[in-house]
Design goal:
Length: 173
Amino acid sequence: MNKKWFTLIELMIVITIIWIMMMMAYAPYNYFQKKAELRVAAKEISKTLSESRNLAIHWTSSGWINQSIWVYFDKNNKNTIKIFSYDYNDKTKKSLLKEIKIQKDIWIDKVAWNSKALFYYEAITWSWSFYKNENFTSPINTNTIKIDFSYKWTTTNLKKELIYYTKTYLSDY
């Protein structure tokens, strides 16, 4: 008898082979997509630090009172960076300028040696300080600050490190 049609088993074998080939192509694509998201997160963090410094130097609120800016990283709040403004003369008067959420499944693991950190950019003097906590106690003097972050739900070890150079205000990632 002459066969003119595919059997169901032949069709299922071809579909299975195509499915396996698609899965083999998807795994590397997914990995590189997550790496690209880490690079975007590094750019966001770097841009936040740069923008905060510029706000402290140039920004004035109503009434022309100079505002100091601090950028707060908290490991408990995994992917959020908070930017506050302070009256230059009174550090107890703070207001939240904005909250920045970095990429969806990316966590900030640590900033320098700590789970919490505070970058403080002072208005008028244009100086900056780095603190281990939000209480403005014991500033840390260092030339570089490392910010480690990673992709949350992955079997591979996807991590990125951003280095902030305190003398030049540049970031390397």
